Amino acid sequence: MDLITPGQGLWIWQVGGAFLLVGYAGFWLYAMIDLIKSDFRAPHEKMMWLLILLFTTPFGVFLYLALSRNHKEKRKFQPDFSRKYQN
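-> structure tokens emitted (87 positions)
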């Protein structure tokens, strides 16, 4: 007696797993882009978060997204309006 036989129910698990994998890959890609673009208060924190993202999957992504806001430099909006409009 086979516990798992190919049939109609197996494709539901495969499609569900594919959706989870694509969703996780999206979160991971968003976290990596945010990590690259962000400035941190201490110089070693970017490397620390990179190592956490790479080696503690899947929990590292959610740790980064939840905890990294406290360690980032606040961006200041300082536009340069003194430049002339150029064509």
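The radius of gyration is 21 Å.
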